[in-house]
Amino acid sequence: MIRLMQNVFVLLWLTGSGLAHATTMTGLPEVLKEALLRQSIPLESVSFAVQDMDALSPEWQWNETVPRSPASLMKIVTTYSALMAFGPAKTWETELKGSRPNQEGVMAGPLYVVGGGDPGLTREDWEDVLRALRLKGVRKIDGDLVLDDSLFKVESPDENAFDHQGFRAYNVKPSSLQVGLKAMILTFSVRDGRVMVQPDFPFPEIIIENRLQPEGGPCPIQWKSHLDIQVRDDGKTGKVTLTGFYPTGCGAKELGLGLLSEQTYIGSLFRQMWREVGGEWTGQVRNGLAPAGAPTLVCHESRSLGVLITEINKYSNNTMARTLFLDLGVGQGVPATESVSAQATEKILRSQGMDFREMKIDNGAGLSRDSRISAQHLLQVLLAAARGPWQPEFESSLSIAGLDGTARNRLAGEVNMGHFHVKTGTIDGVSGIAGYVLDTRGRKRAFVLMINDPGAGNALPVQNALLRWLGHGASGGLNTAH
């Protein structure tokens, strides 16, 4: 009798709290099915799942157990795992080590730069580090600049392996000593009938040969495809030759390139910035290990994880995501590798009750042809994040549709819509969107849509149809044929 009363109490609590088991519809909403047919995307190429935040099971699902390439949706798994492992206040340290300066401010011997795995060390941070070194009384460094990035060992192929465009900033490999994401940003504009190309930093090691011609008309979405970029890079110097056309309707546009080796990039920044803060240097740049017990002259603390995941998710930063992924493996193996980090990620998920046997996470960013996860399990991560202790930090890291990040142009200006925090994901043959919606009825849902198909590049209207349907309350007929 007592157990019967307990069961009745639990049932009443579940019903009253809104957590009662919902009826799951196996199928696609008609509006989504129609949008897919208009874009000639086969229904079997699609995985889909939606669940009310207060329900115990999905409301709609389709091919939800099929492992698919998630592209950048995999960053959801990486950033959630990092929050659960480290907490949002986690920071990383980059240290300058070496002998202390004499009374004349001369530092004898090498200056060691020890990377601690900071996913977001900027050029501005690097300049602050050098200013701090000057304030420590160092005027002249009479020795080499030695870069210690021994915390990680990257197993993945070289930058050209993914799409044969290793010079693009999104392909920059991670490092435990990552400065400025090893990127140079080119800004394109048209002035007086000429295409102007302006780098954001005057790297003397990079030559830019601009042969671009202006082209009238509006700015196409794929404006970069009008450019022909040829890169020659010997690891120390680089030459970029730009030919083709730049549409005048594009105004000012930016393109990120990662051309120099880590050694050359950091050395170039150091040489110029150290001179600007009044320092002298007579050595060379090389890789090496800092001696045990070497005095720490400067210790730079990174921004917090809660801040860094915003850059990773809102703007889909691959190099930062891959660095954070390797951070998950630190302490599990020396040095940390992608395979060790994958095991660490799986362990974190299992500690939260999630055992994803089909998942393959190889670099944490989704910049891969091999990564896999099902819509069902990606939905579970979103639900766990929304119900967990770091919900505000995680949700605010996602792009707000129509306002910022990769979704800033989605449904912009549309009225009477729900509010969306989303992560987008796109590589050739893959398109996805996932996140949260607060609809016009005040209900909150998590959702996942993944498309793996040669026609996935045409999926934007499908995603927009889904968002409109969800925003207006996710009501309407369902196609229940499976």
Point out poorly predicted stretches: 1-21, 476-482
Q: Which range does the strand content fall in?
A: 25-35%
Described by its quaternary structure, the protein is single chain
Look at the structure and give the mean pLDDT: 89
Shape, principal axes of CA atoms:
globular
Number of strands: 24
Number of domains: 3
CATH uppermost class of the largest domain: Alpha Beta
Helix content: 25-40%
Termini separation comes to 43 Å
CATH superfamily of the largest domain: DD-peptidase/beta-lactamase superfamily
Instruction: Quickly give the CATH architecture of the largest domain.
Output: 3-Layer(aba) Sandwich
| Rg for CA atoms | 25 Å
Strand order of the largest sheet: 1-4-3-23-22-21-20
CATH topology call of the largest domain: Beta-lactamase
Computed structural class: alpha/beta
Helical segment count: 11
The main pleated sheet reads as:
7 strands, mixed
Topology:
Layout: H1 2-16, E1 25-26, E2 28-29, H2 30-38, E3 46-52, E4 60-62, H3 74-86, E5 93-97, E6 106-108, E7 111-114, H4 123-135, E8 140-142, E9 145-148, E10 184-191, E11 194-199, E12 206-210, E13 213-218, E14 227-233, E15 238-249, E16 253-257, H5 262-276, E17 280-281, E18 285-287, E19 296-301, H6 305-314, H7 318-327, H8 338-351, H9 375-387, H10 391-396, E20 399-400, E21 419-427, E22 430-438, E23 444-452, H11 460-471, E24 478-479
Parallel strand pairs: 1-4, 6-8, 7-9, 8-17, 9-18, 12-15, 13-15
Antiparallel strand pairs: 2-24, 3-4, 3-23, 5-7, 5-19, 10-11, 10-16, 14-15, 20-21, 21-22, 22-23
Helix pairs in contact: 2-11, 3-6, 3-7, 3-9, 4-5
